[in-house]
Specification:
Shape: globular
Oligomer: single chain
Number of domains: 1
Largest sheet: 6 strands, mixed
Strand order of the largest sheet: 1-8-7-4-5-6
Helix content: 40-55%
CATH architecture: 3-Layer(aba) Sandwich
CATH topology: Glutaredoxin
CATH superfamily: Glutaredoxin
Length: 191
């Protein structure tokens, strides 16, 4: 009886193995293109082996309008943050500088205030820190953050053009350095 079960499950086992192999190949391609620069702040980067596209990031703009963010041509960097989060406040100016330095590359940086963050607090924070290169999106009920598996703030998720997660950084980093810009440009070459 056991050989018959194996014959029936054999094709399924092969498909599952191929599925995980392709996932590992995609992950290893990203790692291979960036392995020489994974130092300093980038040691916090966690590569993902995800093969399923993430949900479409549907958020609110600062005025409460529903917006679907993303593009099929860009690497999307979504930074989940909050006005009350000290590490978030610390990293936002360097993320703003990264947005300025990468604005002509195919990298799109999105900031999403997750949870209870008033429009006034977001506006004040952006004004006080002169964050002219970042946008002001909101996820007031944390639905997008939860669907992306965000468990701590700040969390930054990097997504390829097919909406698959490349990886993430949990916690704050200093985004304003050439090593990170090189890392992102190498990811662009792979996607």
């Amino acid at each position: 009886m056991k050989p018959i079960i194996l014959l029936k499950l054999g094709p399924l086992i092969l498909i599952v193995n191929l599925f995980f192999s392709f996932s590992a190949i995609a992950e290893s391609n990203y790692k291979a293109k960036t392995k020489d620069i994974m130092t300093g702040e980038l040691r916090k980067f966690i590569f993902s082996g995800g093969t399923e596209p993430l949900p479409k990031p549907i958020v609110l703009d600062i005025n409460g309008n529903v917006v679907e963010i993303g593009s099929n041509d860009d690497i999307l960097i979504i930074n989940f943050w909050a006005t009350w989060c000290a590490p978030c406040k610390k990293e936002m100016p360097s993320l703003n500088t990264l947005a300025e330095n990468m604005k002509f590359d195919d990298v799109r940086i999105i900031t999403v205030a997750s949870g209870r963050n008033s429009k006034e607090a977001i506006e004040a924070f952006f004004s006080d820190n002169n964050l002219a290169n970042l946008n002001k999106f909101r996820d007031p009920k944390g639905k997008i953050a939860m669907s992306y598996g965000v468990t701590a703030l700040p969390t930054t998720v990097l997504i390829d053009p097919s909406r698959k997660e490349i990886g993430r950084i949990i916690g704050d980093i200093d985004w304003n350095n050439e090593n990170i810009r090189s890392f992102l440009r190498n990811l662009l070459k792979t996607s």
